[in-house]
Amino acid sequence: MDKDISYKDKKVISIGVMRELTGLSERQIRYYEERKLIFPERSSGGNRKYSFSDVELLMEIANKIEDGVQTFEIRQEIVKEKKKEEQKAIRKKMLQGQLNAQFGIKNYK
């Protein structure tokens, strides 16, 4: 497993535990996956595996659904947030590269 992944992002939680943690039914969790709101990994046996970040995301999704927000609107928000995070990461990497070049630091990653 990638050493750079935060413990919150490691996919180690089964759907049964996810059900207990979120209070959602397995059907609801699968529905949110079908609607491309959450992306579990699959074990070699085909079982879904979730992360603690997924728990938080599912709780946010459930709250928004309860408030009357449609799943396609939630998906649009998620896509927009992912793009924002990707742009932030690119800017950070570019800035680090500029700093490394300015000060003659070699990046060993």
TrEMBL record:
Signal peptide: none annotated. Transmembrane segments: none annotated. Residues 12-80 form the HTH merR-type domain. It comes from Peribacillus asahii. SUPFAM superfamilies: Putative DNA-binding domain. It comes from the Bacteria. PANTHER family: HTH-TYPE TRANSCRIPTIONAL REGULATOR TNRA, REDOX-CYCLING DRUG-SENSING TRANSCRIPTIONAL ACTIVATOR SOXR. This is MerR family transcriptional regulator. SMART domains: HTH_MERR (SM00422). GO terms for molecular function: DNA binding; DNA-binding transcription factor activity. The lineage of its organism: Bacteria, Bacillati, Bacillota, Bacilli, Bacillales. Keywords: DNA-binding, Repressor, Transcription, Transcription regulation. InterPro entries: DNA-bd_dom_put_sf, MerR-type_HTH_dom, MerR_fam.
